[in-house]
Amino acid sequence: MSINTEELSENPLLTQSPLPYRLPVFNDIRAEHYLPAFEQAFAEHLAEVAAIRDSPVPADFSNTAEAMERSGTLLRHVALIFFNISSADTSAELQQIETTIAPRLSAHQDAIQLDSKLYERFAQIDTSDLDLESQRLVNEYLDDFVRLGAALSEHDKATLRELNSKISELSTQFGQHSLANLNTAAVLVEEAADLDGLSSAEIAAAATAAEQAGHPGQYLLTLIQPSGQPALESLNNRELRRRLYESSISRGQGQSDIRTLDIAAQLAVLRAERAQLLGFETHAAFETANQTAPSLASIDAMLAQLAPAAVRNATAEAEALAEEAGHSIEPWDWSYYSEKVRKSRYDVDLAALKPYFELDRVLQDGVFYAAQKLYGLSFTERPDLQGYHPDVRVWEIHNEDGSGLGLFLGDYYTRDSKNGGAWMNPLVEQSGLFGWQSVVVNNLNISKPPAGEPTLLSYDEVVTCFHEFGHALHGLFSQVRYPRFSGTDVPRDFVEYPSQVNEMWILWPEVVANYARHYRSGEALPSETLEKLRLAKLWGEGFATTEYLGATLLDQAWHQLKAGVDPGDPLEFEAKALREAGIELDLIPPRYRTGYFNHIFAGGYSAGYYAYIWSEVLDAETVEWFKENDGLSRANGDRFRRELLSRGNSIDPLQAFKNFRGREARIDPLLARRGLN
């Protein structure tokens, strides 16, 4: 497309934001600004790289590696804003832009990554006198050049470009269709009586959702991305539970929605072909090559160790559920009777806890309070700063000495324009090279209550609030020089570790006493209830671990496919993979089935969903360390921040863990936590 100079001068994406911390001026950004901004950013970046590559001056760190880090800042800026919006508040126009941009971005990255002359300049850099972070930067670039194809023949590079472009297009399609299917799968209910078991707030939210969808006077049960749906825990109407369950797990199969199964299979085949071209046996081997896991075999061994114990525990849980129900149970019965068993065995009713978990109190007096106690942070809401949607809230965060740390944006409510699930995105990444500080956003999918009603969270949603803020802290605390190493730009199988650690404060006595208060009376959640909740934590671990491992092993099955192998019918492939892994249980579907597994087919977790359990080994060890060292204290928080959260990828992540913990991690705390020992 041609670039209009006058239009560019008025494009807010192409001018430096005047707002604190370079927060984008979202009120000025319109959909028509994105394509011209991308075009300008592509052109600028290629010109910057060409100047580095074609420089007549011999290559050194400053004119090559550091110059590469200085290049592409406009493209990174535009991409961070666009892809956050396209995930959190998309539209038909934005989806069309994404469809256009995805293959262009892939081609742009290939133009740089496959440049042999640029690779040769990096190979000429003398690193002997560089500091450790700078040495690591050069080595990371060199590893990427080799791993991603810079040494291939020109013929093979052309083939690789075609594969990358097609994979990018299909990934975009999968994500967009998956969101459409998520909305289509919502279950419409005509009578309020059928919703017996849900709270009045949940029923009101369902009525509001139905009205917004054009069904006034009815009720709409919207879905979240995973297989399990929260309403299955409470609905007394067994037939409605069946409808909700089957609507959830059949997404992407094409009966009443878009068949994403075929896109997933195509992606797996193309990724296998690309891996072979790059010298790897499978896509999983290709992805593992730059992770903290030492090998694909080590991942397979860990999963094989965990699966039998998880299934054994889940089978025992199923027997307890059938005993509670007085009849054999179906998959849509599991969550319902699991809550009844939890209540009868441990006297814990999770649904009854919701009035104690009001969103603002959980945030201010729980999530933020724990961060203040650990790290000395203070939080000031900034209503004068606008997010990209009216629901988005902005906080400025300061260190204990009063210095500004960055901005935190919270986007907590579900909407049809938002992808399912929960995630953290950076909008501005910290960099000492540029003097930038972090701006990060947390996205959740909590049902929005009618106006004037409180937002009451399930216990799982409380966990998600703490978890995602752990990612936010990882980004906010970053203290690295080079943008490539900033915040959460670490190996994928390490990135979940800090966020999982932050979950430990949910039931920490001082923290939970501060936030878990009845939204009407202000009464604290009774201490005996908290103790019962702690005792009940192992109940359901068989289900949770089996559900998670089902998705993880399914991911590995798709991505350990070898080039030239036809996977056949995707549903048959899925069933066979779970059966051969010993984790096919009719009562427990994988947390994500193939047709809606966004993490691996539309996100960055292909062959990497194992990262959650791999990171949990480090997490469980870290929780043990905090407990051994007086828990919630500034000294502990400062150590964790200094040795780990601030380091990004500027040193080897496992070395950062070892520096913090004092030794390498053991799996024993994880096995004990999940009841697998």
Global Rg: 25 Å
Helix content estimate: 40-55%
Query: What is the beta-strand fraction?
Result: 5-15%
Structural class: alpha+beta
3D architecture notes:
α15 (359-375) crosses α16. The mean pLDDT is 96. It is built from 26 helices and seven strands. 53% of the residues lie in helices and 6% in strands.
What is the topological layout?
Elements: H1 5-9, H2 34-53, H3 61-70, H4 73-88, H5 92-113, H6 116-123, H7 132-148, H8 154-184, E1 187-189, H9 200-212, E2 219-221, H10 238-249, H11 261-277, H12 283-288, H13 296-325, H14 334-346, H15 359-375, E3 378-381, E4 393-398, E5 404-413, E6 423-428, E7 438-446, H16 459-476, H17 492-501, H18 509-515, H19 527-535, H20 541-559, H21 570-580, H22 598-601, H23 611-628, H24 634-645, H25 653-661, H26 668-673
Parallel strand pairs: 5-7
Antiparallel strand pairs: 1-2, 3-4, 4-5, 6-7
Helix pairs in contact: 2-3, 2-4, 2-5, 5-8, 6-7, 8-11, 13-14, 13-20, 15-16, 15-18, 16-17, 17-23, 20-21, 24-25
Features:
two-stranded antiparallel sheet; Neurolysin, domain 3; 677 residues; Glutathione S-transferase Yfyf (Class Pi), Chain A, domain 2; alpha+beta; 53% helix; 26 helices; 4 domains; five-stranded mixed beta sheet
